[in-house]
Design brief:
alpha/beta; TIM Barrel; eight-stranded parallel beta barrel; about 15% strand; globular; UvdE_bac
Length: about 325
């Protein structure tokens, strides 16, 4: 079996390579129409070209797994700004998609925590649909809309978890089917446990992204090892290995915050559970040190008996 490891958004090893440069709406309002357009174009071009730099870095270092920044296009979903970001950057988006395709990379998006479908307020759901559509349109522009995933959380409980889950099941189908088909759900560190999130995934036919750190903080009553057969089953229709998230606590007090690197001792029970299950998986490292953390963990695992490093970001067991 193969475990592949990746990281989120920015390759810290590259100089000035942020793919998330942005501007505030307040700043945008202060400028005339020509300056507004120039600034949006400049920032978007920088973000997309830095994404290309990062993908080349990943290819060179044998890292097949990567989460793209949700902030590639500044103010793309703001109701007063909304602009056509695809047409002027058509070729650059296609270049990203071609790089991903030709090198068998696995990329994804993860909209922020405000993109949720459990709220009793209709405008929250409407905004979630707008945000999910924005991410899907970027994937369409890249030609990756049938391949890459958009990962979100179930959302808030609003004092009644069962009612909130019912609202999710009512609101989520308001998304276009094509977007729903690329969506994955992840357990969170405060509200929805792995089992509860898995049940929503099974109800909606959506793959489940299990976050080990979140489960450690918010475990519910279940051992995650017992859920692995059902977790893997949610991915069967995709033909892809399941995706997992891994990070470790920043400190004994800040247990929900992510440390700069992944603590090997903290991660090993999770890794050994996957080893015992015996099937390949992809693991997104959500540590603050980004690419450096992913490569360091793979290096440490490769030194353990029974683990063989077969690429910069991959381990064979």
């Amino acid at each position: 079996m193969i475990l592949r490891f990746g990281y989120v958004s920015t390759a810290l090893s590259l100089w000035e390579a942020s793919p998330s440069r942005t501007m505030t709406f307040t700043n945008w309002k202060k400028q005339n129409s020509i300056d507004r357009k120039d600034k949006l174009y400049h920032l978007t071009e920088q973000n997309l070209k830095n994404t290309i730099r990062i993908l080349h870095y990943n290819i060179a270092h044998g890292i097949d797994l990567y989460r793209m920044s949700s902030s590639l296009v500044p103010l793309a979903t703001h109701p007063e700004v909304k602009w056509d970001f695809v047409t002027p950057f058509y070729e650059v988006f296609k270049e990203i998609g071609t790089l991903v395709h030709n090198n068998n990379l696995r990329v994804s998006f993860h909209p922020n925590q405000f993109t949720l479908f459990t709220s009793p307020q209709e405008h929250i759901t409407a905004n979630a649909i707008i945000d999910m559509t924005y991410h899907y349109e970027m994937l369409e522009a890249m030609g990756l809309h049938k391949d890459a995933n958009i990962n979100i959380h179930v959302g808030g409980a609003y004092g009644n978890k069962q009612e909130a889950i019912k609202r999710f099941n009512e609101n989520f189908p308001k998304l276009e089917q094509a977007i729903r088909f690329q969506t994955t759900l992840e357990n969170d560190d405060k509200t929805y446990t792995a089992k509860e999130t898995l049940e929503v995934c099974e109800e909606q036919g959506v793959p489940f992204v299990f976050d080990y750190h979140h489960h450690w903080v918010n475990p519910g009553e279940e051992q995650f090892e017992e859920l692995l057969p059902r977790i893997f089953a949610t991915w069967e229709r995709t033909g892809k290995a399941p995706k997992f998230h891994l990070s470790s606590p920043k400190s004994e007090k800040l247990i929900r915050a992510h440390a700069d690197y992944v603590n090997l001792e903290f991660a090993l029970p999770f890794i050994k559970a996957l080893k015992a299950f015996g099937r390949s998986a992809d693991i997104m490292i959500e540590a603050k040190a980004k690419d450096k953390a992913a490569l360091k963990l793979v290096e440490e695992l490769g030194k353990l008996r029974g683990f063989k490093r077969v690429d910069g970001g991959a381990i064979e067991i």
